[in-house]
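Students often ask why inverse folding is considered easier than folding. One informal answer: many sequences map to the same fold, so there is more than one right answer. In these notes we will look at a single instance of the problem. The structure comes first.
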C-alpha cells in the first residue's frame, strides 16, 4: 500500500487517509451482500398451492364461537363474526368498512346472477336431454312392438317420461332403469296392501272415519308408479272387484303383498341409489301424512311396521310429534 504525504496533508471531511481507502478493483465486501432478514422470510407462509395450509385456514374460518345475540346465545363461525364486525363498523360510520361492504355486496350480486344463469343453463340442457331421451325411447318401443315384443330394457316407457314444454320441466314417473324397479315394486305392494285393507274394513264394517284419508294415501303411492301399474283411474272398478272377492282370497293376496314388502324393504330403504326415488315419494306424501301427524314417510313406515298395519293415527297428532 502506497503512502502519499500530499494527500495526508489534506486530511479532513471527504479526505480519509489513503491507507484506509478501498483499493481499485477489490471489493469492499468480499463475502457479498448479507441476506435480508432471513428468519422473517422463512416465517412467510404461501397459501397459494398448499393443501395443508388451506385446510388449517378453512378449519379456522369455520371454527364456532359462542356469542350473545340479543337475549339468545348463538354459535357463529369466525368467518361470520368477521363479516358481522365489518357490517357493524360500516353502520357506525367507518368509511373504509362501508366501501368494502358495498363492494362485497356488488360482487355477491354478480356471483348470484352467474349462479342463476348457470342453473338455468343446466336446466335447459337437462330438459333437452330428457326430450331427446323420450324420442329415443319412443323409437325403441315402436320398433320392438313392430317386431311383436317389448324392448330388451323396457324402462322407462316413453309415456312415463313427462315433458312440460311451458315450464321446461321433465321427470320420469316410475323406474329410470332395471336397478330402480325393486323400489317401485315395493311402492306397488304398499299400495295394494292398502287397497285390500280398505276393502276388508268395509266388509267387516270396521271402516273408520279416516278411511278416505287412507284411500288418499294409497292412491298417492300409486301416482308414483309407471302408468301401466297405476289404478287411480279405475279405482272404483278395482275396489268393486275386490269387494266381491272372497275374504279368504283377499287375505291370501294381503299376505302375498306383505311378503313382497318385507322382502324388498331392507334393499330399498338402505340402497343409496334409491335415495332420489324415496325423496320423491316423501315429497308426494308429506302433505297428506302431515295432516295425520306424521313427520315423513319414514315416520309413517315405522308406525305401520310397529303396529302390524294399524298405525295409531289419532294418538300421534299431539305437540310431541310435530
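Output (designed amino acids):
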Amino acid at each position: 500500500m502506497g503512502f502519499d504525504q500530499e494527500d495526508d496533508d489534506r486530511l479532513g471531511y471527504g479526505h480519509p487517509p489513503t491507507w484506509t481507502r478501498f483499493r481499485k478493483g477489490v471489493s469492499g465486501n468480499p463475502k457479498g451482500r448479507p441476506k435480508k432478514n432471513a428468519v422473517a422470510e422463512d416465517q412467510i407462509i404461501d397459501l397459494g398451492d398448499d393443501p395443508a395450509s388451506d385446510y388449517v385456514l378453512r378449519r379456522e374460518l369455520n371454527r364456532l364461537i359462542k356469542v350473545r345475540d340479543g337475549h339468545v346465545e348463538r354459535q357463529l363461525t369466525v368467518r361470520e363474526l368477521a363479516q358481522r364486525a365489518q357490517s357493524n363498523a360500516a353502520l357506525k360510520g367507518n368509511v373504509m368498512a362501508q366501501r368494502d361492504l358495498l363492494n362485497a355486496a356488488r360482487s355477491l350480486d354478480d356471483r348470484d346472477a352467474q349462479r342463476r344463469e348457470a342453473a338455468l343453463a343446466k336446466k335447459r340442457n337437462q330438459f333437452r336431454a330428457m326430450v331427446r331421451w323420450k324420442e329415443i325411447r319412443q323409437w325403441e318401443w315402436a320398433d320392438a312392438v313392430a317386431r311383436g315384443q317389448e324392448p330388451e330394457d323396457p324402462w322407462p316407457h316413453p309415456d312415463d317420461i313427462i315433458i312440460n314444454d311451458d315450464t321446461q320441466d321433465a321427470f320420469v314417473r316410475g323406474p329410470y332403469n332395471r336397478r330402480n324397479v325393486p323400489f317401485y315394486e315395493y311402492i306397488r305392494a304398499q299400495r295394494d296392501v292398502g287397497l285390500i285393507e280398505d276393502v276388508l274394513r268395509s266388509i267387516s264394517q270396521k271402516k273408520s272415519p279416516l278411511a278416505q284419508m287412507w284411500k288418499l294415501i294409497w292412491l298417492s303411492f300409486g301416482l308414483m308408479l309407471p302408468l301401466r301399474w297405476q289404478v287411480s283411474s279405475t279405482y272404483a272398478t278395482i275396489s268393486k272387484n275386490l269387494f266381491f272377492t272372497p275374504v279368504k282370497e283377499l287375505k291370501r293376496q294381503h299376505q302375498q303383498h306383505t311378503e313382497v314388502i318385507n322382502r324388498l324393504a331392507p334393499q330399498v330403504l338402505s340402497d343409496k341409489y334409491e335415495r332420489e326415488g324415496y325423496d320423491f315419494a316423501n315429497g308426494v306424501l308429506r302433505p297428506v301424512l302431515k295432516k295425520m301427524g306424521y313427520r315423513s314417510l319414514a315416520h309413517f313406515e315405522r308406525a305401520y311396521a310397529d303396529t302390524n298395519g294399524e298405525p295409531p293415527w289419532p294418538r300421534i297428532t299431539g305437540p310431541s310429534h310435530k
